[in-house]
Every structure is written in C-alpha cells, then in structure tokens.
Amino acid sequence: MDELEEVEVRTLETPFGAPSGPFTVGKLPRGEGREPLTCVFVSRHGPGHLALPGELNYRANIWGLKQLGVTHLLAASAVGSLREAIVPGHAVVPDQLIDRTKHRETTFFGGGCVAHVQFGDPMDAGLRDKVLEAAEAVIATDDEAELHRDGTLLVMEGPAFSTRAESELYRSWGCDIIGMTALPEAKLAREAEMAYALLATATDYDCWHLSEEEVTVDAVIAIMKANVARVRKIILELATRLPESCEELPWPRALAGALITDPTKIPPATRVSLELIVGHYLSA
C-alpha cells in the first residue's frame, strides 16, 4: 500500500516451516493528532501467487504474525456468491464458517500437548464491528458496490471449483458465499489468541447460477482487480476507526481453560515449538 510508512520487510523462520513469504511491517497514518497504526501484511499465496489454497502453510503464517506482535487480524478473501443478492463486486463480512477442507494442518497442538478451543463464533465481534463501520463508510460512496453485513462462508478444499450439485447442496445448508482460504486460518488465529475478522469480496456466482456463465479464472481475476482498490480503501478507513491501542479492543483468551495436558508431561520439543502460543499458560 502506498500509504504505508516506515516500511520494513521481515523474513521469519518458524517451528512449523516457512511462511508464504516475507512480512511487510509499517505504519498507516490515522489523521492529525493520532499516532499511526502499526500493521503487518503477508500475502497468503506468496509473491506471484505460487501456492494452491491447500498448499499454504497457515500455521507458519499465523505464527509469524504472532511473533511480530499482531493481536488483531483482518483477512481479505475473494469468494464465490451462493445468493442472487450477493452480486459479483459486492462485499460481505461473514459471521459464520463451515469447514469442507480435507488435507490441511488445522491446529498448532498435538505432539503431546492437547487443547480444545471454543469456536462457536469464529469471528471476533469487536473487530468485526469496526470492519463493518469502515466498509459502510467506503461503500456508501461507491455506486458499484454493496455491503452484506453477515453471512455464512463455506470453505472448500479446491483447487477445482464446485460441481453444480455441491453448489446447490451448500445453498440448501444456508451458505451465502464460498471460498478456499479462511480455514484453517481462522481456527489457528483463535488458538493463537488473535482476534480474527474477514472481509470477503464476491468475484462470481458459483455454478448454481444457471443464467450466468460458469466460473472462469479470467472472469474471477478481472473482478478481483476491481475489488482490490475497494479493499485497500476499507483498510485505510479501518485504521482511522480503531482505538489508539488495539489493546482496547478485547480479543479471545481462547486458551484459558482449553489446555488439557498436564504441563509437566508435555515433551520438551513440543514446549519449545508452542512457547510463543502457550508459554504464558505453562509457566503460570
């Protein structure tokens, strides 16, 4: 983003392997009299979009953000629409997720350390409210966009798009949009005790929509490009609406009461790999 100041590019190693790419750290201005907001950006698919959704190292990405001090995470995702009212180009701030992924590492835990976090409400309410405020302000001045304030996002494995039968099934479940990257990302953010919200932009109607042509990569990319500028504006607006310190926005203490394993029984190697995530609980 051109508005980002004091930019530093950080390359990190993690106990879970390499992240998708370098992390860009910088400050976003928030207007006269206010301290700029420190932000960290990482591209899920890496420079040049080289990785499939199922190939992404979600654990390394979340671990890296945690290592850099991130407490609140806004994810931006391109999605397909499962509803007539959600027109390509519209924005959605979903409040629920359904997991249809198959082959991904979904937790930091294991290896002798067991934890079960609550995930009934996968989005953080406080951060989500701020995202809605920012999106409303930007989209109010945009005749080609509309904001949908909630919805259920189905996360599929990919990389192929849905069959028509699958698309109709997901609609019958009450799903509103469909994508490939929000999970296990949101689950890992919860385990890392980071507030998570998602800003989705529709690029197409999924194949249920018989009056529309079936999804093509060219069509998706064309609409994605139009959506990028809108998302950037929303991020800039969000920066002005967040409190002086994100510490003022409560976020989930998801691991309080979630750890099952006796800390004295956790293998040393596992303790080392999880120190950033659970160290303050193990030493309490």
Automatic annotation (TrEMBL):
Domain of life of the native organism: Bacteria
Which BP terms in the Gene Ontology apply to this protein?
Answer: L-methionine salvage from methylthioadenosine; purine ribonucleoside salvage
Site entry (Important for substrate specificity), positions: 162, 217
Q: Name one GO cellular component term.
A: cytosol
Q: Where does substrate bind?
A: 180, 204-206
User: Catalysed reaction per UniProt?
Assistant: S-methyl-5'-thioadenosine + phosphate = 5-(methylsulfanyl)-alpha-D-ribose 1-phosphate + adenine
Q: Which InterPro entries match?
A: MTAP, Nucleoside_phosphorylase_d, Nucleoside_phosphorylase_sf
An example of a Pfam family matching this protein is PNP_UDP_1
Q: Does the keyword Metal-binding apply?
A: no
Give its E.C. classification number. Answer: 2.4.2.28
Briefly state the protein's biological role: Catalyzes the reversible phosphorylation of S-methyl-5'-thioadenosine (MTA) to adenine and 5-methylthioribose-1-phosphate. Involved in the breakdown of MTA, a major by-product of polyamine biosynthesis. Responsible for the first step in the methionine salvage pathway after MTA has been generated from S-adenosylmethionine. Has broad substrate specificity with 6-aminopurine nucleosides as preferred substrates.
The family annotation for this protein states: Belongs to the PNP/MTAP phosphorylase family. MTAP subfamily.
Name-wise, this protein is: S-methyl-5'-thioadenosine phosphorylase
Which organism does this sequence originate in?
Plesiocystis pacifica SIR-1
